[in-house]
Structure prediction request, 509 residues.
Amino acid sequence: MDRCDGSRARGAWERLDACLKRSLRRFSSSRSLGAPRCVFEEIATAVLGLAEDRCGGSRARGAWERLDAYLKRSLRRFSSSRSLGASTCVFEEIVVAERVQCLLANRSVRASLCPVELRLSVCPYSTSGRRSQPTADSVSKMKIAVEGCMHGDLDNVYATLLHLQEVERIKIDLLICCGDFQAVRNETDLESLAVPPMYRTMNSFWKYYSGEKAAPFPTIFIGGNHEASNYLWELYYGGWVAPQIFFLGFAGVVRFGNVRIGGLSGIYNSHHYYSGHHEKLPYTDQDIRSIYQVREYDVKKLMQVQEPIDIFLSHDWPRGITDYGNSQNLLRRKHFFEQEIEKGTLGNPAARDLMAKLRPSYWFSAHLHCKFSALVQHGENGPTTKFLALDKCLPGRRFLQVIEIESETGPHSLQYDEEWLAITKKFNPIFPRTEARPNFSDAKLNMEECRLFVKNKLQMRGRKPFEFVRTAPCHKSSRSAADNFPSGHCRNPQTEALLELLGLQYCLD
Prediction:
């Protein structure tokens, strides 16, 4: 406690100290989301009481520094506590800390009294116990790097993570990307990229596709609204776009070790949501801008998932997510979101419904090119989803976050998900290849029978995805090498092998 001049200042700090101890005791004994928010509001109130006493100068600064350290130390202890379960302190700018800052700003506390930003540090986090946890003697921490919009800049993202590994002396186990990956192999792929011609550049993915470079980490990504759609369509069900780099599909679920990861590619547009996947090569200008729009068919498949999801990815934000975070801070950075937030139209309503149904431990998004965090409580006693949106890869932008999840001891590998393949088998007979809305009542296959079929197939073949195969020439390839590949739509061998495994017809022509 800082002994600022005057009895009133001393009294204020005594009240603050008592408030912190009382509130943090309540925090440690509570499992609900509501309590921590109330806790930090109480802390903010005590801080405001101190500010009203107008203590200032170097001692006040020291007091703020000690308060900041006290909060960080206490919350680190809580985040590592097994008794607390799913801790609320996960992200660097988690919503509870932002609420304190917002309250302080709204009460016009003088800047001279707040020289230290009240912020929570990244804390180790254990996912909630909704999935089978590793045994005590096999437990380890899986470090997963999350990236916002890649925009084809694999070289810089990988270099950043390699530098982080060296400086922090940690090992990144997996990189996941929330869309706009831009898996562009050659100049032909650029023609399917929904960006103005002046922005169509090769970037660096082709180096990893050709084998000139190798991805230093296993990488999983979803599609956004700026993609080489002709290539991703070959791998509609998911697959390797390059060695070590896996596309989750237009919708999909996979496992990495014992961590279950799901995702939905594209962005929402009400004009195309109920349509089928009708776009065919050669794409028209309209096709290039509709092929990446989210479809009801893919959302319906994800809605069938029953087993817990640890991490879910979407490119655009779930609609209404700003209600669960510091929207005022967001609007200070992105003021042009205000009208959409007020009208309730910002974000993807299908993603909102999926979050309510799947209730994943984490949900990551990108698209809007800013960092934003939120906590979503599912029911009074339900689980909590930690939401984080990240920026695009540019200097000075917040485009990366590293999280830790308890997992089995590695090495970890990517595997097919049994339940998801069963859902794929059930719904593939009504795959919508025209503009007409699919009739979901025609998906008559029994889910239990599909699950048993897939289980038997995976037991015989194994769960490892089919191997990567190049289906188009690389950038800078010779003319003779390019002549060895077909033009137009290519049946990717990975997709053909997966459909054969599931006993399904090929529908992507």
In short: The mean pLDDT is 83. The chain has two domains: 7-113, 137-502.
